[in-house]
Amino acid sequence: MLLTDAPCRPTIAVSDKAKAMAYYSEVLGLTFVEENPVGATFQCGGTFLEIYPTPLAGTGKNTVAGFEVTDLEAAMRELRGQGVVFEEYDRPPTREGIAQLGPNRGAWFKDPDGNILALVQRGPG
Question: Could you read off the pLDDT of 95-110 as tens digits, one per residue?
Answer without folding.
Answer: 999 999 999 999 999 9
